[in-house]
Amino acid sequence: MTAKAQSWHSRSVGSRLQHGIFYLLIHLGGRRAAYVLLHFVVAYYALLRPDLRRKGEPYLRRRFPGATARQLFRHGCRLLLDFGKVLVDRAVVGILGPECMAVRLRGKEELLQLLAEGKGLILIGAHVGCWQAAMSALGFLETPVSLLMQREDGDIDRHYFEHAGRECPYRIIDPRGFLGGSLEMLAVLKRGEVLSVMGDRLLGSDKNAVTVDFLGGPARLPFSAYKLAATTGAPIAVLFSAKTGPASYELELAKIIRVPTIAGRSGAAFAPYVAEFAAALEKFTREHPYQFFNFFDMWQNDETK
Known about the structure:
With 305 residues, this protein is an alpha/beta fold. Helix content is 41%, strand content 18%. The chain has one domain (16-287). It has 10 helices and 9 strands. The strands form 2 sheets. It has a 7-stranded mixed β-sheet with strand order 1-9-8-2-5-3-4, with helices on both faces. One of its GO terms (molecular function) is acyltransferase activity. The chain crosses the membrane at residues 20-47. InterPro entries: LipA_acyltrans (IPR004960).
């Protein structure tokens, strides 16, 4: 039995008015003022909306095996708080400008070398840290970037460029388009450009996923990006961002994955490369346990739970 194609959504939590209050606080008092309100909001959701806190429990039970109910509650509150800070930081970058957030990049020269190969470059990230703040630090590539992104109906969260009143700096490819946007992604790489995708959530059909080990259990992760790499020869750069201070992030080139030409379309052939990504993501969660924001059960078919 396979998992449903999509067991998660990215719709915003809170009303348009509530979001507007945070935005106003950032304008008036900056990041710190928004953080103060955030603590009260997290307390409200943790105590009176336990359904939201529990969305993180499948991950937290894996990350902290053997944790008691009280410990899971504490871990869940910390996860919500860190997630809230990331959302505030995303707005801060757009409202006050990227200069108010220090982003350190580890692996800049390696990324330039990969792009210089002329076969395009696939950036695979995950829902960790503040990926939008980190992406704003990639201007040095001086190459068009296309982003595979699905925006939910009813999502009122603003991206950082929307706060600044600018056009999106990336070309958005909708996975709900023709053939899941695969032809558009292939064209990006053929032009030697950059394609950015998320490796920890499945977009579209479950046929595009393969099962690999992640945090001690079988999880379903997408393999389409690795298939594109095999077709085009494009290298894959695994990039993770982590909040390292009140106003600082680190963007790390965690791994370089090269996929050889593979005959056939079976996901099993790409499983070893997906597993490399999963291992890198697991290492990230060991180092930053409260910065993995995938609020759904990735292990829902694990019969050992």
